Amino acid sequence: MKFEILHQSKKSRARVGRIHTAHGVIDTPNFVAVGTNGSLKALDSKTVEALGIQLMFCNTYHLMLQPGSKRVAEAGGLHKFMNRSMPIITDSGGFQVFSLAYGSVASELKSQGTKQIDGSVLKINEEGVLFRSYRNGDKVFLTAETSIQAQKDLGADIMISFDELPPYHMDQTALIDSMERTHRWEKRSLDEHLKDPRHQALYAVIHGGVDVELRKKSCAYLGNLPFDGFGIGGSLGKNRPEMINMLTEVMPFVPPERPNHLLGIGDLPSIRDCVPLGVDTFDSSFPTKAARHGTLMTMDSTHFNITRGKHADNLGPMVADCECYTCQNYSAAYIHHLFKAHEPTVMTLASIHNVHIMVKMMARYRQQILDDQI
Fold first, then answer.
1. One-character DSSP codes across 301-313
2. Which of 12, 151, 356, 371 is 20 to 30 A removed from 137 (C-alpha atoms)?
3. Strands (E), 91-184
4. Which residues contact 269 (CB under 8 A, 6 or more apart)?
5. CA separation (Å) from 300 to 192, 288, 310, 320?
């Protein structure tokens, strides 16, 4: 993998770059769509490529449990299995294990993360984490080495090192212990990867919760190792302002010559606030999840609910001047009707619109950076 910076804004830390992978180029900053099981919900791989999603996020944890990473490898790897020719990033599996147990980062930022263990994580020790499969109850032991081997089986262009996702309300001593253990897991992940690099890149994940000094230490430790890029993960704060404050302090310490990725964050206000801080890529299931519930996005970074009665008689497009397939071919009234009639086709049509908006919005951010407006 190769990363090049095309332009550094004169106004902020925002930058325009390109990540070169074996399956194509990723322009940055960019939005990474989340296809948990190797598919964006309601959209097939070729539709996603046609919409211009340059990097797609698939979850190792779910694919390990079903259909199994070995079965994907036997099918020729994830690209061939899901018929995607463009880049794919996979997580370590650890994020999913801990987020299913404790709640997601996005939930935390919405102040919904109660962070109570649900019993799926059975044991965490120096070797790894023992958890119970949510599919059949089997016990699964995930380590740095097995995580990398699974991501090798999947054949992702960008892999992520095995890490622990500590909850927001973890005490300081436990947080330090967690970060240091994660650093050891990440070093083991790197060692395992370098035994057989193939065409794949490996990102480290910077941890330390909302403690800025711990985050800086994590940047320093991981920055001295030959990772290809850096994720920013773990507990980012109980709300968006706390996350932005932390990132404002920490981003100057993330090695600038390598790409970075803000894990699990991709809502419109967060992207708006984080692009000037120098964040390169974001991932979130929000655009497609919102679409399936009738929430449609606009280029003004706002959204509205198409199921409301005022749209029932609107024979114009859902969003004026939108060039997406849905707005070009169907009226707002028709989409409103499909939601009210519970027709499954509307999940696809609404998702096409929101993904299109995300792609166009990120292209606009890149141009604004090139023009030094951000």
1. S-EEETTSGGGTT
2. 151
3. 121-124, 128-132, 139-143, 158-160
4. 240, 301
5. 45, 18, 20, 12
Alpha carbons 237 and 216: distance in angstroms, whole number: 16
Q: Each residue of 246-261: b (16+ CB within 10 Å) or e?
A: bbeebbebbbeebbbb
Choosing from 163, 228, 267, 283, which is the catalytic residue?
A: 283
91 included as an active-site residue: yes
For residue 217, give the 3-state DSSP assignment: helix
Residue 239 is encoded by which pair of tokens? 């709300």
Q: Which amino acid is at 15?
A: R
Instruction: Identify the DSSP state of 195.
Output: T
Tell me how far the alpha carbon of residue 138 is from its chain's centroid.
27
DSSP letter string over 309-370? GGGTT--S-SSTT--SHHHHH--HHHHHHHHHTT-THHHHHHHHHHHHHHHHHHHHHHHHHH
Determine if residue 83 is left, alpha or beta; phi over 0 gives left, psi from -120 to 50 gives alpha, anything else beta: left
3 and 20 Cβ atoms separated by less than 8 Å: yes
The CA-atom distances, in angstroms, between 372 and each of 14, 280, 367 are 9, 16, 9
> Which residue has 């194509």 as its token pair?
24
pLDDT digit string, tens, across residues 177-235: 999 999 999 999 999 999 999 999 999 999 999 999 999 999 999 999 999 999 999 88
Instruction: Look up 372 and say whether it is catalytic.
Output: no
Angle value at C-alpha 268, between 263 and 274, nearest 5 degrees: 55
Global confidence as pTM: 0.93
